[in-house]
Every structure is written in structure tokens, then in C-alpha cells.
Amino acid sequence: MKNESNTFDIELKQKLTEMLAWFHDYCVSNNLRYYVLGGTMLGAARHKGFIPWDDDIDVGMPRADYEKLAKLMGDRQFGKYVLETPHSQAIDFLYTFSKIYDTTTTLVENTKAGTKRGIYLDLFPLDGLADTEEESHKRFKKIDFRFNLLLARVTGVRKGRSFMKNAAVRVLPIIPQFIVNDKKLQVQIDDMCKQNDFDKYKYGGNLLGAWRYKEVMENRIMGRPTLYPFENISVYGAENYDEYLTHLYGDWRKLPPVEKRVTHHDFAKCDLHKSYLDK
Predict the structure, then answer these.
(1) Cα 196 from Cα 116, distance rounded (Å)
(2) Exposure string (b/e) for 162-201, b if CB count within 10 Å is 16 or more?
(3) Per-residue pLDDT tens for 164-195?
(4) What is the pLDDT of residue 167?
(5) Sheet strands (E) in 21-71
(6) Distance CA 190, CA 186 (A)
(7) CA atoms within 13 A on the CB side of 233
(8) Over the stretch 202-220, which tens digit does the pLDDT of each residue have?
(9) H helix or E strand, kind and range, residue 137
(10) In angstroms, what CA-CA distances link 100 with 171, 180, 220?
(11) Domain ranges in the chain?
């Protein structure tokens, strides 16, 4: 059973690396800025690839580049890849950021809607907030309230999450759609995030990231997209990667305890050899 798991993990990472290589080449060809974020940047800096116990990829693009990518790709398929954004009409796509899917695979996510697509790359917009930390915090709080409300309504109960968060996940979906409409809330969050240009303000960042306010930092930290080795390819990350990773993780060079070296990826089913488009 362990050998099967190892084989699956290796193949999954190979396919994700292939997707990231395609995304990198597409961005370079179209003069689009991007940065690997979060655990992907940590993996590039500390492991020169995936964090060994992790299996996902996060990338971010300054809002102008993010919107340009959405226009260039639309809902067309590029080889085996397709983009889906928060403006998707699909009722089971309730993410506040975009995803690029591998259409040759199937992945069912642990959401209340049981979102069925392929393995994916998470694509976040990078937005501006303000020129002071205090004002940035005020603006972020308004976004964060709505973000957490939507998250509690659409996500599934997860082992390891606090009792209060799992309680909210169970209770908040009871509020009917005519009072809190999830699709409208999704678009509202996106609209709130893009009010301030990433390049024009001192503070900003990935306002939709898992680390919440820790994701807000001086934009100079991201700086000029800088190449880093990642598995057998090269990818763009933060120019000031040490500041970025320290801001998010503290002592990022230190490995976590063995019991915490587990994947945070949460899916119900994954088939790397069957397309979710097949009936």
C-alpha cells in the first residue's frame, strides 16, 4: 500500500511540475509577471522543488497581469490545460481565486459542492491595499470578513481544524441563498480586492491566501520576479525571498516536527489517468 502511495505522489508531482512549466512558458511568451507563492516558494528556496510532504502549487500574479491572462485564455483549452476564474458560471466553482486544470485527470475536492475537475494550479491575484500598515489592516479586515463567511459556507469539515471553525462550517450554510448568495459573495470579494493597484501602493499582497493578514506586506518584498530552480525546471519567485518567507513562516529554514510533515491538500478522490470531461 505504501509503494502505491509513493508511486501516486511521484506521478502527481510530475504532472504538477509539467503544468507549472507550461504556465511559466505561457507567461514568458505573453510578457506576464508571476511569482510562486507560499509553500511553493518555500519549496523552491529550501528544497529546490516540492516540499517533500506537500503536493500542490500556488502562484500569484499582479492584478493587471492576472486579468490579462484571463482575457488571453478565456474559457478555451490550451493543450490539456484550461483556466477557470471567480466569474465562472458553474455553481460548484466558488473559489475567490482562479485555477488552471489538467483536463486529462480527475480530482474531486472536499467541498460541500464536491467540485469535480482535474488536478490544478492555484492562481491568486496580487492586489494593493494602502501606503500605511494601519490603513492596509483596515481595508483587509473588510475583505477578510466576507472571505471567511464564504469559506465557511462552501468548504467541508476537516480533521485537524479547530472545533469553532468546523462548527461554523456546519452552521453557516443553513443561511439560505436568498439572504447570502454564494456566487454574488464570490464576485463581491474579487471586486473588493481589485480596487487598489498592486504597483501603486506600498502595501498589498495575496489578499486571498491561507495565511490571511500575514500575506500583506510591503510590495517591494516581491520586487522583480526572480528565477529559482524547482524540480527539473526554473520558476519565478519573490526577489527578496528571505524576507517573504520569514514574514510568512518565521524561521523557514528549520524543518517542522515529523508529525507536522503532512500534506495540507484535501481532496476526496483523484485519478491521474481519467479525464473529468469523460462521461
Answers:
(1) 33
(2) eeeebebbeebbeeeeeeeebbebbebbbebbbebebeeb
(3) 444 444 545 555 565 567 888 899 999 999 99
(4) 44
(5) 35-36, 58-62
(6) 7
(7) 18
(8) 999 999 999 999 999 999 9
(9) helix 133-154
(10) 31, 27, 27
(11) 2-271
